[in-house]
Amino acid sequence: MRALTVIGNWKMNGSLSINQAWMQSVGEGMQCGMPAGRRFGVCVPFPYLHQCSQLLASSQLLLGAQDVSAHESGAYTGEVSAVMLQEMGVRFAIVGHSERRMQYGEANETIALKAGAALDHEITPIICVGETADERNSGRAIEAVRRQVASQVSTLQDRLVDCLIAYEPIWAIGTGKVASAQMAQDMHRAIRLQLAEFDHDVSAHIGIIYGGSVRADNATELFAMPDIDGGLVGGSSLDAQEFLAICRA
Ligand code: PEP
């Protein structure tokens, strides 16, 4: 869905007391008025889902997880299923973040299965795609991202319309190097055109958000681009006031 969406990704950060203070500040900030028709969420580490679901009970901020298992239940030590997340009130789950692709060897096929499992339980998967610095510098950025998107299309088909795609150039994640608004727009456009080759409805209605060093001082320009439907915000989401400023953008 193309409602403007801003999602925080805390990564492996937080503590019971830090989370409490963050939720209180963001909750109070949001009560002072947020633009209408927008969606806001935060993806927290698994152990904090229960605490955060309680803290968010009367908030417009939606709860998210940072991963989800492709499996329903059974002998999958360390995994967390979509049905468990749903029970915790989770509305979004990041899948295929580049940190998981690179450090845990997650492949496109597994990522699509994870997205499918999330959809089965009314959780919106945030499917991350993006190119490395090498691919960008050698003119292969679009080709690299196309490959990742094509794999999602072939498994998820028209269920893709209920997902969010997060374009996250790997060289921009946690580096402070943000893609220029035009560079991000060009890739979002390329993804939308690729999806239109498959299905015009999916292409017209899917939300494509940008991630990679989004801050309060660059969010307005990025989010104003016609094919950018919001942001996935890592480091800057840890600071409640910075996150609120990005949501207001
Ligand atoms: C992310 O982790 O998804 C991300 C975009 O990180 P950062 O905003 O810190 O670059």
TrEMBL record:
InterPro entries recorded for this chain? Aldolase_TIM, TIM_sf, TrioseP_Isoase_bac/euk, Triosephosphate_isomerase, Triosephosphate_isomerase_AS
UniProt GO molecular function: triose-phosphate isomerase activity
**Highest taxon of the lineage:** Bacteria
Task: Provide the reaction this enzyme catalyses.
Answer: D-glyceraldehyde 3-phosphate = dihydroxyacetone phosphate
The pathway is: Carbohydrate metabolism; erythritol degradation; Carbohydrate degradation; glycolysis; D-glyceraldehyde 3-phosphate from glycerone phosphate: step 1/1; Carbohydrate biosynthesis; gluconeogenesis
Q: Name one GO cellular component term.
A: cytosol
Q: Does the record's keyword annotation contain Glycoprotein?
A: no
**HAMAP family, per database record:** TIM_B
According to its UniProt entry, the function of this protein is described as: Involved in the gluconeogenesis. Catalyzes stereospecifically the conversion of dihydroxyacetone phosphate (DHAP) to D-glyceraldehyde-3-phosphate (G3P).
Q: What is this protein called?
A: Triosephosphate isomerase
